[in-house]
Amino acid sequence: MTYRSTLWAPLAIILLASPASPAQQQPATPARQPAPTQIDPSRLDTSQLDTSQLTRLTTQPPTREPRPDAPVAMPISWGQAAEDIQLQARQFQRTDTVAAVAQGNLPFARPTNPEAAGVANTGLPVLIPGTAALGLDGNARVLLFPRENFYNLSITAPGLVIEVFGTRLAHARAPDPLSTRRLNAGDSDGYRISQTEYGRELSFNRYGAAYSITVECDSPDSDPRCRTDAYVRNLANSLIIAAGNPASGGQ
């Protein structure tokens, strides 16, 4: 392929730079074009035209049906989330969970990037793993990228990457029966766990939203955090409601 390319390049230069032959220099005789025809509007018979259709098309704006597979924001059960917040408060021996979050007393991995401040406008419970379950001794980089209807949390440590994703967006079109069974399948905790090339992935539904935790290791065959389901399951059990804005929608 390289040999052919080296031949095409000088040939292209020669074709562009060489003078035209006498035959090429003579302008071609243009073909005879048909004379344009003009229509006299006064001679048109408009008695058979349906003017009502024309009026409708010119006065009514076109309507566009929504795409059946377009994602829609699902309602969030903030009442259920509030009950879990109370349980969470008692677990950490706090009577005011909002104050605990503000004062930094809840033991979850805290993001350090400035974009994390946008979590105040995220319209679903933002779940973040607890520090004890992570077991990283503070030696990790935590980044949070929130949006109105979803968020992504990234935790990077030596030999390990953890991602937590949550969304309230769902497709309007109902999935096929096989996909529905897969989505509804889960263990006694409601978790769906699968092995990936570099670790484990756990997904579940809660509060009307969908969440997933992905754990990837540099050495998935030897690192116990990726070799079995125990680590990712422990992360899911440790999730703490760290933020969320009911004003963005819900029940």
TrEMBL record:
Keywords (alphabetical) are:
Signal
Q: Which residues form the signal peptide?
A: 1-22
Region of interest (Disordered), residue spans? 23-70
Q: Where is the composition biased (Polar residues)?
A: 44-62
Annotated Low complexity bias: 23-38
Name used for this protein in its record: Uncharacterized protein
